[in-house]
Amino acid sequence: MGMKINNQEEYWVITLCSRGPDIPNTARAIEMKATYLTLISSHQFTGLDHEDPYTHLSTLYELTATMGFEERDKEVVYLRLFPFSLAGKAKKTS
Prior knowledge:
Helix content is 44%, strand content 0%.
């Protein structure tokens, strides 16, 4: 039985969850401190019915914005930390 996709944003959330994002290469080394992983892991999205994926993405974006990375590195950091923000059925791959 196929999954019903309601809109374009939901399509991208499902796509990112199921196959992982394409992370841009960067010539700069970006350090991912353990505290960042702990922070992101404490705000995980599990895919339960009462959870809102859009709120999760917004929260994740806000958290990564407070980590002090340069503007040009924020998207790379966001994409690298995104898989750590998922748990349960949201983390399962097809």
